[in-house]
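ARCHIVE CARD
Drawer: 12
Card no.: 0347
Subject: one protein chain, sequence and derived structure
Cross-reference: see card 0346
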Amino acid sequence: MGRTLAWRTSERHRRASTFGQLGTSHIATERRRAGHDPLPRIDANQAYPTYRMIVMSGRIRTMRAYLGAATSETQGTPASGITVLDIDGPKFTVEDSVEAQDPRYLALSPDGNVLYAVAERKDGQVCAWTVDGTRLVPLGRPQPTKGASPCHLSVHPSGRFLLSACYRSGTVTVNPIHRDGSLGEPVHTMQHSGVGPNNERQEGPHAHMVITDPGKGAGRGHVIAVDLGTDTVYRYHFDETTGALQLASELRTPPGAGPRHLVVQDRYAYVANELDSTVTVMGLDSGTALFTSSTRPAGARETSYPSAIRLAPNGRFLYVANRVVDEIAVFSVDGPELKLVTNVPCGGEHPRDIALSPDGQYLYSANQYDDTITTFRIDPVTGIPEPIGESFTTFSPTCLVFA
């Protein structure tokens, strides 16, 4: 979140692009030719979407992606909704767009046929669209979250429930998913409670992310909710029949850390902490914090308010977007141990989200405040992102999800 923070501003450099010139008036083009079947799905981990690519001449050429954006209260240019993109390395092609209210975070159904979005407003909602080739078709009615400012959502692995985290109210909501993919009214809402030592940002609970632990076996498979306001990662038992949540355990980050997002690998959760610019490694077996590392180089004092955290498909490297200083922190990963390798400029202003291509070759930075997405090729040996191509201009990007 962090809209109350006095973010650094700079002169915005805008590049001409199809999206920038035409706004939401796009003519959808058909890029799939006969015989070009999608590759088998790759499920990196539950914090990531499932991926689908388009194959041309026997090699990967383009990737379908969906772009969420801010339509209000943004220091970038207000967008109009969700954009459908085809991405080939640093080349972006706009295929379609639909109007939506502050669809700042998106999630796909397990089969990739339905796209879900939050409406990050005071009276929060979640919405659904059917994926019809390059088009998004509204599906059912928007449904309430019974919580304020939903800022993250994910689909439960069963495909039967949508989970959303509401920042302002500090709640987690469960909406049922009908057989056709449309949404029903909430069946359960979990209210967090507590405060943290940061009086301005932790005056109460602020749920910021909710996913399902992909791990199997005893003590795994919980619904995991990250709360910035209470310095807590909540683990819930989930009833797949009723959609009810029941508290299983609470994992604590250092006081004042402000946990925002996390990714899960094996027995560990890697938690990006917004308020103190760190990453905490949580042991999912022990339920304790094992290790904490700064997302800034040694000697750096400026707080960076980290946003997104992503794990490379090979599990060897971790990437964290540092806002304010506008950079991407690169970590090497060895189980519970992290080592900060370097910090790379993101090429824009206020990286609200970063996304990895499914093959791990590219990293994309969605820079909300200067209306750009920048592309990086990742060195397969060092894991370091190297900028390539020109920035893609698009209004206030906040979330990029590959199909």
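Annotation on reverse: The mean pLDDT is 88. The first helix runs from residue 18 to 22.
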